[in-house]
Amino acid sequence: MVMKIGDSIPDSKEDEKLVKEISSCLNVEENLKEGSRESCDIPECDVEILKFVKSTFQNVLEDYPRKSERPLKEIDRRISLMEKAWYSNLSTEVKQDMYKMAQALSNGNIDSAEKIHCSLMVHYVREVKNWMVGVKHIIEMKKESGDLQSL
Fold first, then answer.
1. Among candidates 40, 127, 115, which has minimal Cα distance to 86?
2. What is the pLDDT of residues 75-95, one digit of tens each?
3. Name one Pfam family in it (predicted).
4. Tell me: the pLDDT tens digits for 11-66?
5. How much is the pTM?
6. Which of 118, 117, 96 is nearest to 46 (CA)?
7. Which of 124, 128, 143, 125 is nearest to 60 (CA)?
8. With 0-12 CB in 10 A as exposed, 13-18 as middle and 19+ as buried, what is 52?
9. Are 38 and 104 in contact (CB under 8 A)?
């Protein structure tokens, strides 16, 4: 059987799941435009944006009930990498999205924060790849804290 461009290849269940996840990330811009992103006035000063982002992350870390030193040190290391990148080579778009993500987290809107995270990973992977893992852990911690409080 000869495959032609445009022919679909049968996928296994795992491949289908991966394709759905990737498609979801690629469509994240459309999802964000539909109002799931927090509406906010972004400060023009990079220092103010960074201060808000870091304080939001610190609040999540402080509120997390299951503190373990090793993961917290790794998250701190990643956030330090973010701070260094912030002052050297981080684009304005990434900084603004990080502000919006922090605002979503501070408002308890985990879904919006996850969508922004996914968008950053898809569109700005070269800028964020070294430190975004730490941010993902912070989002997960916020989600777990909310789940634990609702029990």
1. 127
2. 999 999 999 999 998 999 999
3. SRA1
4. 445 445 444 544 454 444 444 444 433 445 788 888 999 999 999 999 999 888 77
5. 0.71
6. 96
7. 143
8. middle
9. yes
